């Protein structure tokens, strides 16, 4: 376990294994431990870097609301701080962090060996209706009220265990984690809109290996898989459907996720 200070915030980072680098970033409100089933499959052949965004997992309190460029830059700074340099890495993003991973690949092509999106968020026509300041202010107020009422401690660990069993469920009894999760939720539209603009202005490096993994549990997921297929096509990548799988595909189908990561880099 390591802590590196970025922007004045202690970031929890875990580095496992040896070989070419891959960096794993989990979705909204999730933590480093959500990748646990995948890491043993990667570590014999990869240096695996996991980290918690501010407020989540074991990282320190978030000081500012998230933005796309800041999150892409965070990945670069985590790699530099944890590994003592800026190696080329296969960057892997799950759900909301798929936005961050794609932005990293566009903004830091010299550091990107491949891009793997694990049931990534997809927004074809992103927009925001309420001003950002109102949303972030409301999230801070809501987080304070819920914390004062004891809601995180009373409900957080149980809700997390229902999502997926983990010995780290107690972290979701923390006001810090609830505030950070709320802030990621209310700025989701901003991040999606930023990515839409970035796609217009900053292309991916030609020939970059891109893999999109779509989780599917049944026929009702056909529209979701179609959206993931369109995403893969837009990025010039390949689609792999993980079936059956819930949204936490790295837990439901760890072997297939690990295989995609191992095959998804150009070093």
TrEMBL record:
Keywords: Hydrolase
Gene3D superfamilies, alphabetized: alpha/beta hydrolase
Pfam families (alphabetical): Abhydrolase_6 (PF12697)
Chain ranges of the AB hydrolase-1 domain: 23-260
GO molecular function: hydrolase activity
Keyword Hydrolase among UniProt keywords: yes
InterPro entries: AB_hydrolase_1, AB_hydrolase_fold, AB_hydrolase_sf
Entries under PANTHER family matching the protein: MONOACYLGLYCEROL LIPASE, MONOACYLGLYCEROL LIPASE ABHD6
UniProt name for this protein: Hydrolase
